[in-house]
Design brief:
Layout (H helix, E strand, L loop, with lengths): L20 E5 L6 E3 L15 H7 L1 H6 L7 E6 L3 E7 L11 H5 L1 E7 L2 E8 L8 E6 L5 E6 L8 E7 L4 E2 L6 E9 L1 H4 L10 H9 L1 E7 L8 H9 L4 E5 L7 H18 L5 E4 L9 H19 L5 E4 L22 H18 L3
Helix pairs in contact: 1-6, 5-9, 6-7, 7-8
């Protein structure tokens, strides 16, 4: 359809200064939202139902409003793509860029081959921001990756008034890969949303995904295990290791989480991952790694052939392995690339590639 054929009464206040631009609400067709709960105008985006998140913990309830893994997809030949985000103002974190925390980035794709177009960079925000990027004017599918660490209330996309706008084609793998884990899983500290490891894997395999990383709050609670088990996934990546205080606490919940998930999904492949910032001389790190390996081995021993293990101790291996984090813990883009390489290989195997 032509943009001009859509609602002529749609008005979005804008100071972007571009003429002949029409603003559209991404919560309405033909835009498609991935990685987030279904939403409607006036309702903020969230990664899981509030009533369920509240039964897990206060931390998860808040962090579920962070849009990590959220994506907006559509097809257009507009020569410009503008974005207006309505967001509450939040403090700046020292170890992640503002683009990663509160910005958006844009990819064009054709037949599952993706290329980076640019980032929508927040400036001095006052309940949100607006900016734009030029394109080559060809008809492409576009994916907008949403912020990793901030809530988002509304998003509007601005396009040329005479441009085509169509629904994006489905991912090659429509059933999402589900990831559960800590701040690293949530995306800290990628320089921009598309550089979190799940987004890299998604582009490499053209697969949908759901990011259920909860910074400092991945504790494998029974309510969280039940919610994970309620999701229809192609693969479950259990990146749950970091946030428990010791191996004993992790052991009390790690295998039960597996049992809950496997009881609901007897055939869905499960990928177990240990922490990438592993210190072999630290008995706590060693103990936690053994817990995850223990769950994997118990599953194999019980005849489960749909489990895989990724040893986080080797995810950063290669040149400049000590340059893979921002702070000794949270990966930078190099670290996330190497995580995507290692975890992505397991996901690819699990999907039967």
């Amino acid at each position: 359809m032509k943009i001009a054929d859509l609602d002529p009464n749609l008005k979005v206040e804008s100071s972007i200064g571009l003429s002949n631009l029409v603003w559209l609400d991404v919560k309405k067709s033909p835009f498609r939202i991935h990685g987030l709960m279904p939403s409607k105008p006036g309702v903020a985006f969230t990664r899981m139902p509030d009533e369920i998140a509240a039964t897990v913990s206060a931390g998860v309830r808040y962090l579920a409003t962070n849009t990590a893994g959220g994506r907006i997809r559509f097809r257009t030949n507009s020569t410009r793509i503008a974005l207006k985000a309505v967001m509450p103002d939040h403090g700046i974190m020292a170890h992640i860029t503002m683009v990663g925390q509160a910005g958006f980035d844009l990819y064009a794709s054709d037949k599952g081959e993706y290329r980076y177009v640019g980032s929508f960079i927040p400036g001095a925000r006052s309940h949100g921001f607006e900016t734009w990027r030029p394109t080559d004017g060809g008809l492409h599918t576009y994916t907008v990756n949403m912020p990793l660490y901030d809530p988002v209330e509304e998003v509007y996309i601005g396009l040329d008034a005479d441009a085509l706008l169509e629904e994006a084609e489905p991912y090659s793998i429509e059933k999402p890969v589900v990831y559960y884990g800590s701040s690293i899983t949530q995306g800290g500290c990628a320089s921009r949303p598309g550089n979190a490891y799940q987004a890299m894997i998604s582009r490499a395999l053209d697969c949908d995904f759901i990011n259920l990383g909860f910074s400092g709050n991945a504790h494998g609670e029974s309510a969280m295990a039940a919610y994970l088990a309620s999701l229809d996934a192609s693969v479950f990546v259990c990146d749950y290791d970091h946030n428990e205080q010791d191996a004993q606490t992790l052991a009390a919940r790690h295998f039960p989480l597996y049992e809950t998930y496997r009881a609901a999904h007897p055939e869905v492949p499960i990928v177990f991952v240990t922490r990438p910032d592993f210190h072999p001389d630290d008995p706590v790190d060693v103990g936690r790694r053994e817990v995850v390996i223990g769950t994997y081995r118990r599953a194999l021993g019980a005849g489960d052939k749909n489990v895989l293990f990724v040893d986080g101790a080797h995810l950063f291996d290669g040149d400049f392995a000590d340059s893979c984090t921002v702070d000794g813990c949270h990966p930078n883009d190099l670290g996330f690339y190497r995580m995507a390489r290692g975890i992505g290989a397991a996901v690819k195997t699990a999907l039967g590639f």
